[in-house]
Write a structure and sequence with these properties.
Blueprint lengths: L1 H21 L16 E8 L2 E3 L3 E9 L7 E5 L8 E4 L6 E5 L4 E10 L5 E11 L6 E9 L3 E2 L3 E9 L7 E5 L8 E4 L6 E5 L4 E10 L5 E11 L9 E9 L3 E2 L3 E9 L7 E5 L8 E4 L6 E5 L4 E10 L5 E11 L4 E9 L3 E2 L3 E9 L7 E5 L8 E4 L6 E5 L4 E10 L5 E11 L7 E8 L3 E2 L3 E9 L7 E5 L8 E4 L6 E5 L4 E3 L2 E5 L4 E5 L4 E4 L2 E7 L11 E7 L5 E9 L6 E2 L4 E2 L9 E2 L4 E9 L4 E6 L1
Parallel strand pairs: 2-8, 10-16, 18-24, 26-32, 34-42
Antiparallel strand pairs: 1-3, 3-6, 4-5, 4-7, 7-8, 9-11, 11-14, 12-13, 12-15, 15-16, 17-19, 19-22, 20-21, 20-23, 23-24, 25-27, 27-30, 28-29, 28-31, 31-32, 33-35, 35-38, 36-37, 36-40, 39-42, 40-41, 43-44, 44-50, 45-49, 46-48, 47-50
């Protein structure tokens, strides 16, 4: 009884303590002080080392003690930009991505609970440029096929690698998966000789390795017949070779070989150095004469072939690739130009000193203004070393000389030249005059001038006949157009002004003394004696040409005063015109016309 009581007391005491500890809302699961951030339990990439354009899968394990729905964002390359957004990422736990650029990428997964809680983790993904495997440009082959046992065959191939990797070939000649020959740099060494000792059907395999994981292979079937009585073909004891390879155009390359004949036949070799199926060299007794030199005149890629003939129907051949390189021309002295700066309209001379170690004839093109167009082409420009040019406009120009050796090699140099506006010499007014002086109204007055320009500029003149500030005439090319007529309407003194311009500078001058313009006619009207009512007294009208020029068609118009009346024929000498009915009365206009009036001449009209 006492034991049970004590246990009950302990139980109630513990329950009370738990109740006290639980007060205050610790069972809140939606927020408040007890909201917990999410967690990234794991984050990884597979594979984490890959090539460009190969998918990578990111996987994660995230959780949230509050049971919030989680959202993940994935930045795959550390540029702080979201590349993928994954909703409910506690349940969606992977994302694929394909990288298009090589490098070491730091991918970051950020998880958010939507209530301000976040967590993140990063992983590194290494992306490399994918290797391109080598290719067979033509099929793996063997000649001759079939062949007799004991006679050599030549395996040939043509392989390449777009990445420029150095290729290594291994040759298994009998399909036993053992390497029988290893050929280094087999993009250039393109054949291998082998002699089968035993008759049978064989499958040979050539494996090409680029050293970076890229590998291709091809097979060829071959029949080896039993040895028959008769001639045995010669054989290559060592492959055909050439040194140096590459070789400079114009330098000597030496082909070498090692051939033999089991029958002891004297061997003759023919060498085609450029693959044109033409024999360039014939080498007698080529088992002992084992080299041949050749100098290539042009750069390029060549395939040389050595054919070996035993004179009894037996023949073998091998080929080898050779690169003939070209030496580019050089500038022995820099491109120059003088004078620099130069004035617009003056000649500038470009000069250079170029050469070519191969002795090629050089052609130069000169672009004087960087517009990518050749302004001059200079043949044999190692000897012709200058070119003149005149710039029509001021400015800074970049001129480029390009040198071409005709064999695929070019060099160029540029020089900057400053073209300034030419220093202008103002035009000169050598004389400015007028004739006649004095001048007369209604009679043409001629202005004359003589102007010049030391720069040869075309001059424009402007003539202000009365110096009122307004130009009355503009005369183009006034060096050659050196006069202008003008008729003054009113008498007076005039200060005429001439302005000459070359397009840059203007100069002015005025007549040395003002021009006096007079009326060319002098008119005098007078009555002779005292006039009484109804009486008669003679009137005289005198017209005088006081100018130095004859006048044509001079007219006198006389308004009849009130005190005068006369008959147009009997009372006037010469006869008057303009009087209706014959009588010239008050207010009428009587007129006389003189066909000509010489300089200084006077005419008198008498009315009685």
């Amino acid at each position: 009884m006492s034991v049970q009581y004590l246990l009950k007391g302990a139980f109630f005491l513990m329950a009370g303590l738990l109740a006290a500890c639980g007060s205050g809302g610790d069972d809140d699961d939606g927020g408040g002080d007890n909201q917990k951030p999410p967690m990234v339990n794991s984050f990884q990439a597979a594979p984490n080392a890959t090539g460009i354009n190969t998918p990578v899968t990111f996987r994660w394990d995230v959780s949230d003690v509050n049971g919030d729905t989680l959202t993940c964002t994935l930045d795959v390359d550390g540029d702080s930009t979201v590349d993928h957004t994954i909703s409910d990422c506690a349940n969606t736990t992977s994302q694929a991505h394909t990288y298009t650029a090589a490098g070491s990428h730091s991918a970051k997964l950020t998880v958010s609970d939507g209530n301000g809680g976040t967590a993140d983790r990063t992983v590194t993904v290494t992306v490399t440029v994918a290797n391109t495997q080598p290719v067979f440009d033509s099929d793996f082959s063997v000649t001759p096929n079939p062949v007799s046992a004991g006679s050599p065959v030549t395996f040939g191939w043509d392989v390449s690698d777009t990445d420029g990797d150095t290729l290594t070939c291994t040759l298994d000649i009998d399909g036993d998966n053992a390497v029988d020959h290893t050929i280094s740099d087999c993009a250039n060494t393109t054949s291998q000789a082998h002699t089968y000792a035993t008759a049978g059907d064989y499958t040979a395999k050539l494996t090409v390795d680029d050293g970076n994981g890229g590998m291709v292979e091809q097979t060829v079937s071959l029949t080896v017949d039993p040895v028959a009585p008769g001639n045995r073909a010669p054989m290559f004891d060592n492959n055909l070779s050439v040194a140096p390879n590459p070789v400079e155009k114009g330098d000597s390359a030496t082909f070498s070989w090692d051939v033999s004949d089991a029958d002891g036949d004297t061997l003759t070799c023919t060498l085609d150095v450029d693959g044109d199926s033409t024999v360039d060299y014939t080498i007698d007794d080529c088992a002992n004469a084992t080299t041949q030199t050749h100098t290539y005149a042009a750069a390029g890629d060549y395939t040389a072939k050595l054919s070996v003939d035993d004179g009894n129907g037996g023949m073998v051949e091998q080929t080898i690739n050779l690169v003939v390189s070209n030496t580019a021309p050089v500038f022995d002295n820099n491109l120059g130009v003088t004078p620099n700066p130069v004035e617009k309209g003056d000649s500038a001379t470009f000069s250079w000193d170029v050469s070519d170690a191969d002795g090629d004839t050089l052609t130069c093109t000169l672009d004087v203004d960087a517009d990518s167009s050749a302004d001059y082409t200079i043949d044999d420009c190692a000897k012709t070393t200058s070119q003149a040019h005149t710039y029509a406009a001021a400015g800074d120009y970049i001129a480029t000389l390009t040198v071409n050796d005709g064999n695929g090699s070019t060099v160029e140099q540029s020089v900057t030249i400053t073209v300034n506006n030419a220093t202008n010499t103002p035009p000169v007014i050598e004389s400015f005059s007028v004739n006649p002086a004095p001048a007369y109204t209604t009679v043409a007055t001629t202005f004359y001038w003589q102007v010049s320009d030391a720069d040869g500029d075309t001059l424009t003149c402007k003539l202000d006949v009365d110096a009122d500030g307004t130009d009355d005439y503009t005369i183009d090319d006034c060096v050659n157009m050196a006069s202008r007529d003008y008729v003054y309407a009113a008498s007076g003194n005039y200060a005429a002004r001439l302005t000459v311009s070359d397009g840059i500078n203007d100069v002015q001058t005025t007549l040395s003394t003002p021009l006096m313009v007079k009326s060319h006619l002098l008119l005098d009207v007078s009555a002779q004696g005292v006039v009484s009512a109804d009486g008669r007294a003679p009137f005289t009208i005198t017209v005088s040409n006081v100018s130095a020029q004859p006048l044509d068609d001079v007219s006198v118009v006389f308004t009849v005063p009130p005190e005068l009346r006369f008959y147009f024929t009997t009372d006037a000498e010469p006869n008057a015109a303009g009087c209706p009915g014959g009588w010239c009365l008050d207010g009428m206009e009587a007129a006389w016309t003189f066909t000509a009036l010489a300089a200084g001449e006077s005419r008198t009209v008498t009315i009685n």
